[in-house]
Amino acid sequence: MSITESTAKRYELQDPDVRLMLEVRDDNAAAFEELMLRYQNRLINLMHHLMGRRDQAEDLAQEVFLRVYRSRKSYKPGSKFSTWLYTIANNVASNARRSMARRKEIHIDGGDEGGLGPANPLERIAKAASGQMPARVIDRAEMGEVVRLAMETLNDRQRMAVLLSKFEEMSYADIATTMGMSVEAIKSLLSRARANLKVALEPYLEQGARPPAE
Questions:
Q1: Which of 86, 124, 146, 192 is 20 to 30 A removed from 209 (C-alpha atoms)?
Q2: How many C-beta atoms lie closer than 10 Å to residue 85's C-beta?
Q3: pLDDT of amino acid 146
Q4: Is the pLDDT of residue 97 over 90?
């Protein structure tokens, strides 16, 4: 879809990161460094949630920035910079997961782990909590692990949509642009993801644990 001059100008005026990217297009190295400083940690965290490995997340974030730099001369703002950036990130992550699947590097745990406990890691945590007081307070590290494990039960699209919605606070429209889907499809995807997360978390929450008070 072609981007009109009025659309490009509107995003240039509204988004300071778009203005930085336009400077990158003009070979301003300092502008590129500033964009990396603003988004590098966010991209690494996103990729870490998607891929599960910190070292791979760092490599993929670097690949995203490399693609940004290589495409700088053809850049024309048709959305917020973050939406454009995460569209690239979504493509990079999808390619990486397909490559991993082809190499059979994705290992899915199965069985009962030699009878040592339930296969579902969320259930293992719930079982460990069951002997404690129902109203016990769990620490942030444990809650973070519970959420991470619950996120692992989602499929790739659901996980990406949730991350963009909750961690990046993107609108339905921006998520739709990033993932190449309609707004209605994104709403449906997020609804299914929330339902799946609820199911994944129930074995843990049924033990009566609650997050720490703020």
A1: 192
A2: 23
A3: 76
A4: no
Split at pLDDT 50, 70, 90, the class of 32 is very high
66 with 20, same domain: the answer is yes
Cβ–Cβ under 8 Å, residues 172 and 186 = yes
Q: DSSP secondary-structure letter at 114?
A: G
How many H-runs (helices) and E-runs (strands) does the chain carry?
Answer: 10, 0
My answer on whether 14 and 89 are in the same domain is yes
**DSSP 8-class letter at 153:** T
Q: Are residues 93 and 159 in the same domain?
A: no
Q: Which of 86-100, 116-130, 191-205 has the highest mean pLDDT?
A: 86-100
Could you list the residue range(s) of the whole structural domain that residue 60 is in?
5-106
Name all contacts of 190-196 with Cβ < 8 Å and 24+ positions apart.
190/158, 190/161, 190/162, 190/165, 192/158, 193/154, 193/158, 193/159, 193/161, 193/162, 196/153, 196/154, 196/158
